[in-house]
Amino acid sequence: MPILRADACAIQLAAAALSEGRLAVLPTETVYGLAADATSGEAVARIFEAKQRPSFNPLISHVADLEMAERFAVFEPLARRLAQAFWPGPLTLVLPRRAGGVHDLVTAGLETVAVRSPNNAATRAVIAAVGAPLAMPSANVSGKLSPTSAEAAAESLGERLGSEALILDDGPCPVGVESTILAVTEGRLRLLRPGGLTVEAIEEVAGVKVESAATGKIEAPGQLASHYAPGAGIRLNADRAEGGEAWLGFGPEGGPRQDGPLRRNLSPSGDAAEAAANLFADIRALDQALGGEGRIAVAAIPEQGLGLAIRDRLARAAAPRES
Ligand code: TXA
Ligand code: MG
């Protein structure tokens, strides 16, 4: 499948394909996404097929701006304030849905809809050209690592998308973990998935605490225990690699950024933003070096700021797998 540099011509081609109900892989600041016109049931169904995704999982609708979002989501004042402060950016808001705006498959029959405006110029231009919101989950087979480069997306989905589907290449994703998902209801905020925007930043603008989501009920597949799973196992909070393990460090004690095929450090300076941007690519590289077997020992990551999202993804990558 063609990987095209995300220039004006490629943007037009992607917009044309999406307008005809086909899929395209698009860059965002968080991870690469597999996009379809969110108003077309047939197009959205192709996403579930390509990802082998359980169809009860609703998708995020990506918009060019707040105005497009208000066509299908109801913004209370707090939601509008957050969108104005953080869009375009890695914040997904779960809001009451307006009838008729996006196809039922996108919301999986829920009364709410998840919406965000991604911070990538090429993808924003594609959305504007299509003139409709795009449903866009991460561009990987369900349950596997999210792609943070065009090559990783091609590797994960290439065969399943067919030879015609376009991938727009805009280099590595600067944030590297998926958006923070926040439910907004009557002035209250609930964290459904930690992600690329920190809870601290949200609370500063909102002036209210972000509550953690009620446990027990799965509201986002990111909340499934095993997700983001590489072939190799993951051992958390490790001090060092033991007997054949690969090593993924963090901070000054963790070694150099790269030290041979089996040793990496997410951020030698201990910068959580750098670590988040490197997370999926590093796990992918170590997993490949291990041949998808054995184990990756991962250093402890502090819980503040983006560390929360990194720890969340690592815990799910480490969880026992169903198959
Ligand atoms: O950064 C991101 O959010 C990336 C890029 C491509 O934008 N997208 C992404 O999408 O991570 P996906 O499909 O992998 O994750 C979407 C999450 C799922 O966990 C889904 O359950 C949740 O959003 N979600 C969607 N609609 C929802 C709703 N109405 N209520 C609760 N959760 C919802
Ligand atoms: Mg995903």
Give short descriptive properties of this protein.
323 residues, binds magnesium ion, 4-stranded parallel β-sheet, 11-stranded mixed β-sheet, alpha/beta, binds threonylcarbamoyladenylate, 10 helices
Describe this structure in words.
The protein has 323 residues and is of the alpha/beta class. The chain has 10 helices and 15 strands. It has helices spanning 8-19, 41-51, 66-69, 77-86, 104-107, 121-130, 150-161, 199-206, 272-289, 307-318, and strands spanning 3-5, 24-26, 33-37, 60-62, 91-96, 112-116, 134-135, 166-169, 180-185, 188-193, 210-212, 233-235, 246-249, 263-265, 295-298. The strands form 2 sheets. The chain has an 11-stranded mixed β-sheet, with helices on both faces. A 4-stranded parallel β-sheet has the order 12-15-13-14, covered by helices on one side. A hairpin with a 2-residue loop joins strand 9 (180-185) and strand 10. Helix 1 (8-19) crosses helix 6 (121-130). The longest helix is centred in the C-terminal third of the chain and has 18 residues, at 272-289. The model has no long low-confidence stretch (mean pLDDT 93). It binds threonylcarbamoyladenylate and magnesium ion. Threonylcarbamoyladenylate is lined by residues 28, 30-31, 33, 57-60, 90, 92, 94, 107, 110, 112-114, 118, 136-138, 178-179, 181, 192-193, 219-222.
